[in-house]
Amino acid sequence: MGYTVDDLASVEAAIRALIRGDRVAAVTIDGDTVQYSRVQLPELRSIRDEIKAEVADADGTAVQSFIVTGSKGL
Predict the structure, then answer these.
(1) CB burial of residue 27 (10 Å; 0-12, 13-18, 19+)
(2) Is the Cβ–Cβ distance between 52 and 8 less than 8 Å?
(3) For 18-70, what is each residue's pLDDT tens digit?
(4) What is the SS3 assignment for 5?
(5) CATH assignment of the domain containing 25
(6) How many domains does the chain have?
């Protein structure tokens, strides 16, 4: 399946809605609508990462992400 930038935007909007506290967020990809609840946020983030990778491969750009952590050294 070929994902688009619009699909990525839809998934990211749903993630933001769930983080904001909405109980349900819907994502429409290729005409199919799926509703996600807060407990499915990890699954939705995984789908987002998959779409990001595919969209980046399609247009030849690299998508990079990193995690910054810190501690007090205790």
Answers:
(1) buried
(2) yes
(3) 899 888 898 988 889 999 888 899 999 999 999 999 888 776 665 556 666 66
(4) helix
(5) 3.30.1580.10
(6) 1
Instruction: Evaluate whether residue 53 is within a structural domain.
Output: yes
In this prediction the pTM is 0.68
Within a domain: 66: no
User: What range defines the domain where residue 10 resides?
Assistant: 5-59
Residue 12 binned pLDDT confidence (cut-offs 50, 70, 90): very high
Q: Is it the case that residue 74 has pLDDT exceeding 60?
A: no
Instruction: For residues 53 and 61, give the distance between their C-alpha atoms in angstroms, rounded to a whole number.
Output: 9
- The per-residue DSSP string of 13-73 comes to HHHHHHHHT-SEEEEEETTEEEEEEGGGHHHHHHHHHHHHHHHHHHHT-------------
